[in-house]
Each structure stands twice: as C-alpha cells, then as structure tokens.
Amino acid sequence: MLEELDSQTEDIGKKLEAEPPLPIRRHEDEVYEWLENVERIKIRIQTIEQLGERKYLSRAHLVKLVDEKIGEVKELLQKGSLYSEISMKKQFKYVIIGGGVAAGYAAREFVKQGLKSGELAIISKEAVAPYERPTLSKAYLFPEGAARLPGFHVCVGSGGERLLPEWYVKKGIELILSTEIAEADLHSKTLTSSTGRTFEFQTLIIATGSRVIRLTDFGVQGADAKNIFYLREISDADELVEAIRAKKKGKVVIVGGGYIGLEVGAAMRINQFDVTMVYPEPWCMPRLFTKEIAAFYEAYYANKGIKIIKGTVAVALDADTNGEVKAVKLKDGRVLQADIVVVGVGAKPLTELFKGQVDEEKGGIRTDWNA
Q: Which residues belong to any copy of the FAD/NAD(P)-binding domain (predicted)?
C-alpha cells in the first residue's frame, strides 16, 4: 500500500508543479494538507518498524499500532484517488462543446481555414470521435453487415473524408472525450467538467445538440421499466442491439411516427421482430409528408408486416417481476404485448448550461444571421 501511496504522491506533486491547481481553491488547500499527512504517516510507519525491530514494543502493542496505520493509509489512498484526478487549467483559442456531427464538420472547416496546432479542442461526453449519428437508427441495427465505427465517422455523410481519431491528432486538435461539462461561464470564458477539470477559451462553439424527450416527461406510468429504449448516442444503440439479441424475434412497440420511429421500425422488422407502431397524428411524419405521401409509406410498411396504430398514445407500461417491460397500454384502451419498446417522440435543444447567459428563442439559443 505504501508503494501505491508513493505513486499517488509523485503524480499529484508533478501536477502541482506543472501549473496552478484547479481554481476551486478549497481543493488546493485539501491537496497540500493531504501531502503533509502522507509524509507524516510514512515517518510514523518507519518509526514503528524500527521500534519493532529493536523489540521495544510488545507484540500486542505492535499489532495494534500496525492495524491503526493500515487504516490511515487506506483512508489516504481513497482521498488520493480523488486528488489524482486534479486537472490543471487548459487553455484553447477555440473550444467546441459537443461531439456530434456539427463538431466534426466544424473541425474540418477550421483546418481548411488554416487552424494552427493546439488552437482547437472538442469536448464531448461520448467516448468516441464525432460520427454520423443518423446511422444509429438504420444500418447500425442490421442483423448482418451492420455498420460499426470507424466506418461512419464524419464526414462520410457528405461524401467527404472520414475523420478518424488519428486525423484530429495529426491536425493538432485535442479530442477531450468522456467528459461532461457541468458548468459554463460565458463571462469568464470558462468551462468546468463534472470531475472538476477546467477549460478556458477565447471563442466557444456551442454544438451540444439536443436530448431525447422521454415518456417520463409526459408522466407515463411505468416508463422506467427495463428494455425501454431511446436513440440518441452510440451507447443507446449498443444497448438496443444487445436487447435485439436477447429478445430475438420478439415483439416490439415503436412509440412515435417520425424519423426514429420509421427507421427503427424498419430495422426491427429486418431483425424479424413483430413490430407495432403507435403515434397520435393522423399519418406519419405530418410535418414533412402530405397525407398522400404518408399513405404510400404506411402501405409499404403494412405490406412488410408492420402494424400501425394512429390517433392514440401510450399512457402506461406494465413490467414483469424482473422489471422488464411486457405491455404498453394505449389511451384508447388497447394493450400491446411488448418485449422491447423504442421511443422516438422528439427532442429538445440542450441549452441548460447557458441559461441566463444567452438569448433564447423557441426553446433554443438565438443566433444572428451569420451563425
């Protein structure tokens, strides 16, 4: 344990010497106090060892002292594991917050405009470089020949170069992945992650995208059951793929008649699931399709064996003893058996980080004509 403690001490010491610590000053005081405690405990352990070797202490007393110090070392190790996460301020000329399609295409444009190495960082809570998100509801779900990364990194959607993680390294762009920003201060031009890492910028591009609207947002009873899926990120698609394998050729209810509903419905039918689609509108994709165009697609889906129920909504979901969804109750009284439920009822812009700091319009951030 002492070797592990020494390793933590060395790591944290190097970080403190490299740059000023986190701007959260209470952490700075705690870290220095922790380092002092480490030195004290090491000296005390050395003293106990020397006393034991010279037999100045009884065996019982020695065992008691050793047990006490082991407990103190464990406590220091636990705190040290937190302090080892210390990240110093990182400064960039440009920061893109969000790692979706917009971030990838923006990075390509920056490079075209003569971006210098080290000027740009992309911060994303996802664990992978920017990719073409529409793939998730289509080829990613295929039973054979399914699309997988790196096959659909941006910018293949526009017929452009596929930007692999190595591309960002080569261009001097820092990809900061698996990092969720918890606070954005546009006045001080500072972003703070959920783990306390701090990033300063001169120019910020907000590319946070949107979050899915969930059945819980409507107060639907039982919406927290297992095997209810929403599709936004690659991790969501991975979970759905696992469920498809586990519930092979089962029953799926698709809630929603938009892009996600239609595309996932088709993919699930290709996977030989019994598919039922439910949506409240008089026809699918009403904001895009005319009644006649929608009728063509609905007939095509019906011919493929997909059942469509229009003009009603899900009001409750039942689960079995394992907490897995087993049925969807509709407002018109019908009950649909389900092994899997996929929900695609829209999305809302992710603007919470910037509340009170930007002008908002129609649920999103207002921009000028050049944005």
A: 92-368
For residue 236, what are the contacts with CB-CB under 8 A and spacing of at least 6? 136, 229, 230
pLDDT, tens digit (0-9, with 9 covering 90-100), for 241-269: 999 999 999 999 999 999 999 999 999 99
What residue spans define the domains of the chain? 2-83, 90-209+350-365, 215-347
Q: Do residues 275 and 297 lie in contact, with contact meaning Cβ atoms separated by under 8 Å?
A: no
Question: What digits encode the pLDDT tens for the residues 38-69?
Answer: 677 667 666 666 665 655 556 665 556 555 65
In whole angstroms, give the CA distance from residue 319 to residue 222. Answer: 7
Q: For 352-363, give the DSSP string.
A: GGGTTTS-EETT
Whether residue 80 is predicted with pLDDT greater than 70 in this model: the reply is: no
Q: What is d(CA 139, CA 300) in angstroms, rounded to the nearest whole number?
A: 19
Q: What secondary structure does DSSP assign to 157-178, as a single string?
A: GGT-----HHHHHHTT-EEE-S
- The position carrying tokens 């954005």 is 184
Tell me if domain 90-209+350-365 and domain 215-347 are identical in fold: yes
User: Which has the closest alpha carbon to 309: 284, 290, 327?
Assistant: 284
**Are β-strands 325-330 and 274-279 bridged in parallel, bridged antiparallel, or unpaired?**
unpaired
Burial class (CB in 10 A: 0-12, 13-18, 19+), 113: exposed
Q: What is the CATH topology of the domain spanning 215-347?
A: FAD/NAD(P)-binding domain (3.50.50)
| Contact in structure between 175 and 122 (CB atoms under 8 Å) | yes
Separation between Cα atoms, residue 271 and residue 291, nearest integer Å: 29
User: DSSP class of residue 196?
Assistant: S
Q: pLDDT tens for residues 318-331?
A: 999 999 999 999 99
Name the maximum alpha-carbon separation found in the chain: 96
The superfamily (CATH) of domain 90-209+350-365 is FAD/NAD(P)-binding domain (3.50.50.60)
DSSP class of residue 226? B
Q: What distance in Å separates the CA atoms of residue 282 and residue 126, rounded to the nearest whole number?
A: 37
Residue 83 CB burial class (10 angstroms; 0-12, 13-18, ≥19): buried
| Residue in 314, 331, 310 with CA at minimum distance from that of residue 218 | 314
Structure tokens at 91: 């400064």
